[in-house]
Amino acid sequence: MRTYTLQDDSYFSKKSRVMLVDEANKEIGCIQKESVEGYEKKHVFSFTWLEHEECVTLGIKKKGVSRLVKADYGVVFNDRTYQLSDRIGRNLLYFSVRGSLQAGEIRFEENWDEDVEIYIKGEKTGFIKSKKNDSKVTYDFEPSITELSVEFAVSVLMYYMVKIYRHEANVVGDLLEDLFS
Question: Can you tell which superkingdom this protein's organism belongs to (predicted)?
Fold first, then answer.
């Protein structure tokens, strides 16, 4: 597997962008917050390859309160929009998203170790490794996932959707605890 790391995951508190580096510490691309009409404010991110200047954008679509039950995500690449969605039922227990991109079906499933497993066409092709209380984020990819693929970029950006999911799950959990205690 090839390993990549976010240089700084401060959730952009002070920086306007975060760099993704490979095992040799070579900068591969940068991640930035974006603002896109029809998507939730502060929940849209883009990944830009440094060598090719192409960009992939991933964000949570506006749906109001119903989004807490099932989020829909939009992926924009080369003037085409792809759709991803929470997997109803599973998303109540852990992060679980699926949809289709250029290579076919893609799925993201959080495991019991709090890593997110990446599946393409049913085959496990990588991991997003980040613990809830740790700022270090690493990605492991099988050789079948190329750095220049939309699947690679979406997998890198999906970490931010996981971070949003975990934050919102904590808020809902705290509210439920307050209601029933």
Answer: Bacteria
